[in-house]
Structure formats: structure tokens, C-alpha cells
Amino acid sequence: MTVNYTSSPAVPEKLDAKWRILAAVMLGTFMAPLDGSIVNTVLPDITRYFRTEISIAQWVPTIYLLTISCLILLYGRLGDMVGYKRIFLYGLAAFVVSSILCGSSQSIWMLIAFRAVQGLAAGMLMAVGLAIVTAAFPPQERGKAIGVYAISISVALGLGPTIGGVIAEDLSWHYVFFINAPIGVAALLWGARVIPKGSTRPGQHLDFAGASLALVFLASFLLYANQGETWGWTSPKALIVLFIGVVSGIAFVWTEKRSAQPMLNLSLFRSRRFSFASMSALLSFISLYAVVFLTPFYLVFARHYSIVKAGLIMGAAPIATLFFAPVSGALSDRFGTRAFAVSGMCVAAFGPVPDEQPGSF
After folding, report:
1. Residue ranges per structural domain of the chain
2. CA–CA gap between residue 112 and residue 52 (Å, rounded)
């Protein structure tokens, strides 16, 4: 997904225009990781509040990620067609409204439903935010820009657990969603002013067949992975879901190869660099989120830490990322990305394992 902003009259002529665009996008995308990290921290509190089981409460973060994953391709394609700015601003507005609805939930199932809507909005931000940033910067500065862009994610992930712990301790878990409203409104007003409209592609059409098959494929596999242990990995229900996922995945590949304007250009995967980089990112995020999801339960229920203390512990890794991301981005512009990517993966894989004695810090 690329868009040329240089031909748009909306791009300011000042030298710092690209940095103002970057800052506006950072503020908008700040909310999605902030919300994810805050909710994970207070999930034990939500579980107790609604007197529900962990297997049900886990759908609060899971449905959020499920809707993002299933629709991010669709939003990226829509951004190509109607412009990234429009998708980004619509996503901001929807995220604010859905956050208020989440905070007003009266039951666990109501919260799960509104989290699904919130995921729809977050997918819009995540699908086009980085595209706006990379389009605003020349190639020789994109590594630095992406590194700075990562700061917003790191700050959000770092502040989220601590803020969530403080809010849950002194107020209520409802306010972890309400906090998105002022941030979202500020980002919406600023983004509408500084993000250029960009170019669109006339004559384009949406690949409805590909979008539908991608939705079924991703939803089926994520549902199987999430509920397989509960249902039984080889139970009839689980196998039916898996079968639907396999069939829809094969149909998606077949459809995209024959589509004049595919939802996903499969020829990209002919590049070994692109394919291995995508697989590396996938495995990295799988391992990262497993730790992020389980850590608050471990700290609160097994270690008997307060939510505030658990939040401080969970904020350590994102704070480290805050300092290293912009430096790594700038160095990658000069020396290439391979050494930094491999080094980062090694550090994550061989990180320290906490001792098992309760109460140690």
C-alpha cells in the first residue's frame, strides 16, 4: 500500500510537515496498544467484578484481536481506494464511541460485544497508520521515522499497565476505557488538520469474495486456536471449525490468484525476504502476546501482587523499547535491518526466566 503525498496540495510546504504528520498519527495509534495493555492488566479485576470464569473473561482481549486480525486486510484495501486519511479518522471516531460503550457495559457479554466493535475501529488505525507515516518520509529517513513511530506504541504499552493498575486500585476498571475518549478526540481534531488527504485510485473495486474468505479463514483458525483446548482439539465442534478454516483458506488463495484486483497480492510472497520477515513478525507477536496475556494473572493470582505492582512490572519491557526503538531505527537506515532484527529476536528468546518463589520481586 503506497500513496503519494507529494502531489497533494494539502501537504504543508514547511520542512517539519512530515514530523507533524508523524506526531498526529502517533497520537491516534497510541490508543490501540494503550487499550490492549490496560485491559490485560485489569482483566483479573474484570473477572472478579462480573463473577465470571477466566475462560470467558479471556474473550475481552481475544475478541478485540480477532476483529482486528480479520479485517485489517480489508481496511488496507479500502485505504488504497478512498484514501488513508478518511479510514484513519473514521477509525478514531469509532474507537472513541466504542470505548465509552465498553466502559458503560453492564455484563461480561456486553463488554465482549463492545470490545468487538472497538476492535473494528482499532483495525482501521493499525491498517493505515504506518502507511501514512512511510508515505510522508523519503526512503532514506523511513527507518528513523518508523523507530520514532514505535515510541508511541512503546509508551502506550509501558504506561498502560501502570495506569490500568492505578485506575483499578483507586477508581474502577470502567475508567480504563473512558480514558480513551479525551485522547481520541484530541487525535481526531489534530489528524483532521495536519494529515494530508493523499491520492486515491479511481476505477478500483473491492474484492468482496477475497475479503469474505479472508474473514472466514482467519476467524476459523483463531477460534480453533482459542477454544481448541476447551472443546477438545479433536472434538467434532473443533474439527468442523478447523475444516471451515482450511477450506476457506484454500478458496482464498485460489480466488486471489485469479482476481484482477486482489485483496492480497500473493506475488509479494515470492520474495524470500518478505516471506521470512512476515513469518518472523508473526512468531514474535505470538510469543509476545502469550506473555502479555498470562503475566497479570500470574502476578495477581499466583504471586498475590497488587494490580499497581503488576502494572509496574509489565511496564518494564515497553519502557526499554521506548529508548531502543528510535536508536535502532536510525541505525538501520545506515547499516541495514538484518543484524538488529536477529539480535532483538535473540534477546527476546533468551530473556531471563523468573524464579518460582512467591513474593520475590
Report:
1. 17-207+261-349
2. 13
Please state at what angle helix 307-314 crosses helix 272-297, rounded to 10 degrees: 160
Q: What is the pTM of this model?
A: 0.69
What pLDDT is recorded for position 184? 87
CA–CA gap between residue 165 and residue 263 (Å, rounded) = 40
- Alpha-carbon distance 61 to 47, whole Å? 12
If you ran DSSP here, which 8-state letter would residue 207 be given?
Answer: -
- With respect to CATH, is domain 17-207+261-349 assigned 3.40.50.12780? no
CB 149 within 8 A of CB 123: no
Cell of 286: 505470538
Q: In 83-202, which residue ranges form alpha helices assigned H by DSSP?
A: 84-103, 108-136, 142-170, 175-178, 180-194
> How much is the average pLDDT of 109-119?
91
**Residue with C-alpha cell 480514558?**
179
Residue showing cell 460503550? 101
Mind listing the pLDDT tens digit for each residue in 195-232?
887 666 666 677 778 878 888 888 888 788 777 777 88
